[in-house]
Amino acid sequence: MATVLYITAHPLDPQESFSLAVGKAFIETYREANPADEVVHLDLYKENIPQFDADVLRGWGKLRSGSTFDQLSDTEKSKIDRLGAIVDQFVAAAKYVYVSPMWNFSIPPVLKAYTDATSIPGKTFKYTTNGPVGLLPDKKALHIQASGSVYSEGPFVPLEMGYSFLNKVLQFYGVKSIEAIFVEGTSLSEQAPFVKEKAIARAKEVANRF
């Protein structure tokens, strides 16, 4: 049995969101193909994801300086404890499915906060004399990304900073198997239904072998 983190970063629902509609088709097909696996849905708009704010940075600084966890303020303890729970859950999972729209050429802020929370030395990567080394080489990941225009090919490729960012983060963690499903051109109303239909068909195909 494998644990799959189904990580969604859109405030609407599948009837209103192209990315979530394709993600829903993927995860339903995946569950049918892998009934023994555990799928954990993380709706990032409903999760408590602490920012790297003054409480977190000062708390970590105290710990590095020799303070014990009990010596931190209640707020520092709460936020640092929650960040630890997030990254531990991430490391324990075998597969990751990220679902997000492209906003301003990149990912929603909640997904950036989540990648910050999972980018912890000693958990997802480590520093060595030869540079950082990823600690998750046996994991698999998929990113489903919807966008109004086409960014995976053509003249807008240099502007794409959503999947490219997430891909680099996952590579930094050592993840070798990374796939993407692009739901592109959704701003053109006449072609949007065909874009969605094509992406859902691809999502089902990927789900059966993921």
UniProtKB/TrEMBL annotation:
Catalytic activity annotation: 2 a quinone + NADH + H(+) = 2 a 1,4-benzosemiquinone + NAD(+); N,N-dimethyl-1,4-phenylenediamine + anthranilate + 2 NAD(+) = 2-(4-dimethylaminophenyl)diazenylbenzoate + 2 NADH + 2 H(+)
Pfam families, sorted: Flavodoxin_2
Enzyme Commission numbers on file: 1.6.5.-, 1.7.1.17
Keyword Transferase assigned: no
An annotated Gene Ontology molecular function: electron transfer activity
Chain positions recorded as FMN binding sites: 17-19, 102-105
Gene3D superfamilies, sorted: 3.40.50.360
Signal peptide: none
Enzyme type, top EC level: oxidoreductase
Functional summary from the UniProt entry: Quinone reductase that provides resistance to thiol-specific stress caused by electrophilic quinones.
Similarity-based family: Belongs to the azoreductase type 1 family.
Protein name: FMN dependent NADH:quinone oxidoreductase
